[in-house]
Amino acid sequence: MAGGSAPGASLVDRTLDVLGAFDERHRRLTLTRLAARSGLTPPTTLRIVRRLLAAGALERTDDGSYVVGRRLWDIGLLAPVQTGLREVAAPFLQDLQAATRATVHLAERDGHRVLYLDRLSGVASVPVVSRVGSRLPMHATGVGKVLLAHAPADVQQRVLADLRPLTPYTIVTPGTLERQLERVRRDGFATTREELTLGACSVAVPVRDADGDVVAALGIVVPSLRRDRERLVAALSVAAAGITRLAR
Q1: pTM beyond 0.85
Q2: Which CATH class, in words, describes the domain spanning 79-247?
């Protein structure tokens, strides 16, 4: 269950429970599933859903299920991190994509998951599951490992306690991941090899603020890192430094 407001909760609380039923693994929900995941009764869920449909916050698909509407996306773009960091980073992402012809990501930590702020698709046929606004596990992504390596201790402990396998190559042993995070802090970059999706590898570097704190991560997804890892790390590092300089 994703929601479940306390008895006597306000309409706002219940509406947030309905919206909170959606996540990266539950992008399309029937009314029954919405009610179950929000912890509300079907009649209450239906009343809220009708209001959200009328406002454009939800949309109904041809099969009768519901998806998040465009209006929520438009509102989300108004968040300060979207209008600040994304705008500063956009030219650097474009340059990286043009130089590498690979998919490029800008991401930040949202709790114990990775929030993708921007993505430019590459031309190579590499499976990429991220979307702008989506949240993915930290332990199986390059940008996630960078952010996890510099996250508070309680966040690291929570992630290390729930290392779920996503492919046969996902790191699920806490000690192994802890050693990788130490190398990320030492070397300044993180890598993955088919840990989120088969056929996709990634490399990522931190983006820092003026005080040197890690506020985001910049990453590239490619079919293999066997030959170009150093070149990609260098290109990412230059771009990250440029973002830091302009974001001050």
Answers
A1: no
A2: alpha beta
Closest CA to 193 of 167, 157, 155, 164: 167
CATH architecture of the domain with residue range 11-75: Orthogonal Bundle (1.10)
Going by DSSP bridges, is the β-strand pair 113-120/103-110 parallel, antiparallel, or unpaired?
antiparallel
Distance set, CA 14 to CA 73, 103, 109, 115 (Å): 20, 38, 26, 24
Of the candidates 169, 154, 159, 161, the residue with the CA atom closest to the CA atom of residue 137:
159
141 touches 202 (CB < 8 A): yes
In the chain, CATH 1.10.10.10 sits at 11-75
Residue for token pair 């699920």: 172
Per-residue pLDDT of the chain (248 residues; tens, 9 = 90+): 455 554 556 889 999 999 999 987 888 999 999 999 999 999 999 999 999 999 999 999 999 999 999 888 778 767 665 557 888 999 999 999 999 889 999 999 999 999 999 999 887 768 788 888 888 999 999 999 999 999 999 999 999 999 999 999 999 999 999 999 999 999 999 999 999 999 999 999 999 998 899 999 999 999 998 888 999 999 999 999 999 988 76
